[in-house]
Amino acid sequence: MDFHQYLEARRAEIEAALAAALPSPPACPASVARAMLYSLTAGGKRLRPVLCLASAEAVGGDPAQAMPAACALEFIHTYSLIHDDLPAMDNDTMRRGRPTLHVVAGEGMAILAGDALLTEAFALLAREPVTTDPAIVARKVRVIGVVAGAAGAAGMVGGQALDLAASEPEHAGTPAFEADALRAMHAKKTGALIRAAASAGAIMGGADDTVIARVDAAAAELGLAFQIVDDVLDVEGAAATLGKTPGKDATAGKPTYAALYGIDEARRMAAACIDRADALLAEAGIGHSRLSEIGRWIVNRSH
Amino acid sequence: MDFHQYLEARRAEIEAALAAALPSPPACPASVARAMLYSLTAGGKRLRPVLCLASAEAVGGDPAQAMPAACALEFIHTYSLIHDDLPAMDNDTMRRGRPTLHVVAGEGMAILAGDALLTEAFALLAREPVTTDPAIVARKVRVIGVVAGAAGAAGMVGGQALDLAASEPEHAGTPAFEADALRAMHAKKTGALIRAAASAGAIMGGADDTVIARVDAAAAELGLAFQIVDDVLDVEGAAATLGKTPGKDATAGKPTYAALYGIDEARRMAAACIDRADALLAEAGIGHSRLSEIGRWIVNRSH
């Protein structure tokens, strides 16, 4: 199976699992279920769940054991997009070519749908896979700790707080400071959850601590490459391809890799990240897995 | 030790544990840490953590094992207040006599601090108590499932969505419909987390399933009593005592127990809830525990 077929097959499984994992009426109000579904089915790349399943597979585990974690990570990613798009945050009215949730359902419901997706992620991680096997139960608790740590104040939420602050004029610094601050912000804002996706897969796949640590380090490189390419595409891209206003970040005065280093250098940096990720995976003895192909997909994608 | 002394001793332990459990710089940005701390130390009653510890104790367990769950529940309660107070929700500018978080830190930071508290609650539940004992690890996963279920789309978030909808004029119904709808809304919005607090304590305390189910049912009665008394105090109370504008819910056109049944009948209903809770606790063989005293505290409180 080539990588494109692999990706499509995994995505189909993920879409089905996401739909099955989402709470629905009568257990929860129809308004909340509808709002969660609107954002969850807005056509994302499913990078985090794909990475989670590929990681479980790479370490010799059963990807089905990692599917609840894969879905939970996509719930959390989706909640973060909903809240980031709010008027009090980035104030985005379009995402992936569709109006954002607060535009169609109102701000209050968008806040609640985000809260619900975040909470349901942990409900899912606690509930599935259904097992009394102490080894698997221990993995579940470890994954919950990793995911919550990555999504919380020291991770994704902290990164968004730094991003909010960076948009304020008094925080603009020298270019050297900006490069470090940019990297630190993205390591939290997007890097932490991408690392958690790969780590969660490795943990549920039964990898030992050394392998988990290397998968985590490789995923940190993938996350950085992902963000650099995102910045490049933001400059290069057309609204039709990205589904959002191109150049928005640069116009908003936010620092970007493309602005700091130029497009060619930024692309070289992203490729170097993938090389380092490959070396880490080779050290872990899983150099020829789908994880490497995901790395190349990240740098070669057009949206 | 009389109940007042017991309550003060437990609260002192809880305050110390909450402060220790909160993430702080340099792990997380100072702005987020400050915002979380502002709302967490705003002078709440600590009902949920007290109930959680008392429940662990009532079933013969060690309350220290339930302290992480107690703190996590207060994190989640605090996040829910922060988000409910937002302009897009209830638009409250004062709570417990102080400006609400979005007034002092901005809406964006208030959304993020709420998100962080919710996420850190699950990080804490996964991390503590630190143990490799399979029986305790299994209890931790069960508690995470119970708490996430209570806080999510079928619980607290769902209740807040129903509350948002109830404020819209087209949803006003007949009085009979209103009474059922009010009860269903509060069962989710406040009842679910109060039940989760008592259940989490019983689970961490090592109770068997029959006892856990009765503690849960008793806590449902306590939660209903709590809400009825809240409505009565909202009508009776002065701004100085409640720290918020009295009669606000009634003025906002929201249905309340006081408005539907009158103050005297509402108080009788709350007392009947406590009687039913006591009967359930007696059935569980824990009739003379602090849980009964918490019930009487709930109905006799003045704020």
Structure description:
The structure is a homodimer of 303-residue chains. With 303 residues, chain A is an all-alpha fold. Chain A has one domain (3-300): Farnesyl Diphosphate Synthase, CATH 1.10.600.10. Chain A is built from 15 helices and two strands. Chain A has a two-stranded antiparallel ribbon. In chain A, helix 10 (209-236) packs antiparallel against helix 14 (263-283) and helix 10 (209-236) packs parallel to helix 15. Chain A is globular, with a radius of gyration of 19 Å. Chain A starts with a helix and ends with a helix. The interface between A and B is large, with 53 and 53 residues.
Number of separate helices of chain A:
15
CATH topology of chain A: Farnesyl Diphosphate Synthase
Low-confidence stretches of chain A: none
**How many strands appear in the DSSP assignment of chain A?**
2
Strand content of chain A: under 5%
Sheet with the most strands of chain A?
Answer: 2 strands, antiparallel
Helix content of chain A: over 70%
Oligomer: homodimer
CATH architecture of chain A: Orthogonal Bundle
How far apart are the termini of chain A? 23 Å
Shape label of chain A = globular
**How many domains of chain A?**
1
Biggest interface and its residues per chain?
A-B, 53 and 53 residues
Structural class of chain A: mainly alpha
